[in-house]
Specification:
alpha+beta, 15 helices, 21 strands, globular
């Protein structure tokens, strides 16, 4: 997709309209991986697995899920298991086109959404998925006491009144303030529909020990913390999303997801056949070629940027110190450390495919270590990073070394991704700076902004940085009332200029990933996200 240029700074153009006439989010590319890299045909039912060479798919998680409650998801491993266990009202097909999942029809305006619920769907304990069941789950998601990080991203900052009509089979969401991303929000992992058994026992829902909680195609059959998670196909399930291109191949009766954060080890397992499908994020992806029988597709799984803890008492409440950090870091060197140079250098904390993402490189803070040193010399900095950001956390190591070279006294703590996400959101005094790899699940500018503006994470928001950034919040809320594309993008451009010029975020690069499958297996990648629920056996 080419950028649209006007008299304002450059931004990315919007994409086609949904049923309700709402503009959709970021561009996407639909890939189905297999032995030859593509697959088409009709979806195969559970029984057809008996005709295949196996009925099991072995895949990988980089860490233990932090939760099995959709409303509380935090990271990519949470997203992966969520798609197996829970359905949403709608899903995003290629090019972000909204298609039905539990909803068969919808009418959406900036202040209201009416969704017709699919007939015949059931929970994993046989309970019918009625409009009331859906409404109660969404009420749990929207409730302030749930403190879902994705609540405001879905419903906006106002109140959300959710009701059901049993006779009509509909769920209605009324918003007190306009929010044009409501429909996109109903595709987010966090909006996954939890069945009554899960809402009745929130603790068991969180740990995956509520067997009747699941509305999706699989159940959690077994979980061994730090070792493996096993999922079983529901034989009674027939509520697959209505993708434009049907998936071919057989559904696995069992999915084994081992916990392994070492990309080289996972690559070796793919080569030896002990893993069938995995996402690789390092140079190990180059070890697999289509002509050797592997299905491969590279995609930007996340946006890398440096972000700060801007809560009182931390050094980076000071704008000049944040700007000095930006001057001490080289994008190219970061990209080399993080991915061996395979990533794309970014001009925003939002990926280029996000509507209204900045493409004007002139607003980036330029590298200038001479100016950075006087400000950073002697500054004590606690940095925490995830080990999966580059080989053994190389992205974090690069940033810490660049700051040390500029005179800062940096203590780096490289941890697994579950510890990292938990510490940054629940232990806000434990860190000053981090490398963020943001997965923008909804493909929207609000999603890209959400980790740095609005309500802090410890108060139930999605803002890991802690500073509200009220000026940017105001611009975001203004954009959500603007139905004119050029006006909305102009407003979001102002927001990005504030975030980048004041160094609330220091854009780096894409986090490249490669969905990799052995011969005989496939998986679909849409809009920069691999979907575990689309894994299939093809021979």
């Amino acid at each position: 997709m080419m950028p649209e240029t006007t008299n304002s700074p450059t931004w990315r153009s919007r994409l086609p309209q949904t049923k309700a006439g709402m503009a959709l989010g970021a561009a996407g590319i639909a890939l189905v991986l297999g032995a030859a890299g593509c697959s088409t045909g009709s979806p195969a039912g559970p029984a057809s697995a008996a005709k295949m060479s196996t009925d099991t798919i072995n895949t990988v998680l980089t860490s233990d899920p932090t939760t099995f409650d959709p409303a509380a998801v935090q990271n990519n491993d949470d997203y992966t298991v969520n798609r197996l266990l829970f359905d949403t009202l709608v899903r995003r097909d290629a090019n972000n086109k909204i298609v039905g999942d539990l909803a068969t029809d919808w009418k959406v305006t900036p202040t209201q959404g009416i969704f017709t619920i699919r007939k015949g769907s059931t929970c994993s304990d046989g309970t019918p998925v009625t409009a009331e069941v859906v409404a109660n789950s969404l009420k749990h998601f929207a409730a302030p006491e749930t403190k879902s990080n994705f609540r405001n991203l879905t419903f906006g900052t106002g109140t959300a009144a959710i009701s059901s009509d049993a006779a009509a089979g509909t769920v209605t969401i009324n918003l007190s303030q306009p929010w044009t991303d409501l429909l996109q929000g109903m595709s987010l992992h966090a909006s996954g529909i939890v069945c009554p058994a899960g809402l009745k026992d929130p603790k068991a829902l969180k740990t995956g020990d509520a067997p009747g909680a699941f509305s999706g195609p699989f159940t959690l059959a077994k979980h061994e913390h730090g070792v493996k998670y096993t999922f079983s196909l529901r034989q009674d399930y027939d509520a697959w999303p209505k993708y434009a291109t049907a998936l071919s191949g057989a559904l696995p009766a069992t999915i084994n997801a081992a916990v392994n954060a070492n990309s080289s080890s996972v690559a070796n397992q793919l080569l030896t056949g002990t893993v069938d499908i995995a996402n690789l994020t390092t140079k190990d992806m180059d070890r697999f070629k289509a002509d050797q029988g592997y299905g491969t597709a590279k995609f930007p799984i996340a946006s890398y940027y440096v972000m700060f803890n801007e809560r009182p008492g931390h050094p980076f409440t000071d704008t000049t110190l944040r700007q000095s950090v930006a001057k001490a870091i080289r994008q190219q060197a970061f990209n080399q450390a993080a991915s061996g140079g395979l990533g794309e250098l970014y001009t925003s904390f939002a990926s280029p495919g996000v509507p209204c993402a900045n493409t004007d490189a002139s607003i980036l803070i330029k590298e200038n270590t001479v100016e950075a040193k006087p400000k950073l010399t002697g500054l004590k900095v606690n940095m925490e990073g995830a080990q999966v950001f580059g080989p053994n956390g190389a992205a974090n190591t690069y940033v810490s070394e660049a700051l040390r070279a500029a005179g800062a006294d940096v203590k780096l703590n490289n941890v697994d991704v579950a510890t990292w996400s938990t510490d940054l959101t629940q232990k806000p005094d434990s860190w000053d700076i981090t490398v963020m790899a943001a997965i923008n699940a909804g493909g929207t500018m609000n999603g890209a902004l959400s980790t740095m503006v609005g309500t802090p994470a410890e108060k139930g928001g999605l803002n890991w940085g802690g500073a509200e950034n009220s000026a940017v919040v105001g611009l975001s809320e203004k954009a959500m009332t603007q139905t004119d594309e050029s006006q909305r993008c102009g407003t979001f451009q102002q927001a990005q200029q504030i975030m980048i010029s004041d160094a609330h975020a220091v854009p780096m690069s894409s986090m490249p990933a490669q969905a990799t499958t052995r011969s005989g297996f496939s998986m679909q990648v849409l809009n920069g996200q691999a979907d575990a629920s689309t894994m299939r056996i093809t021979k």
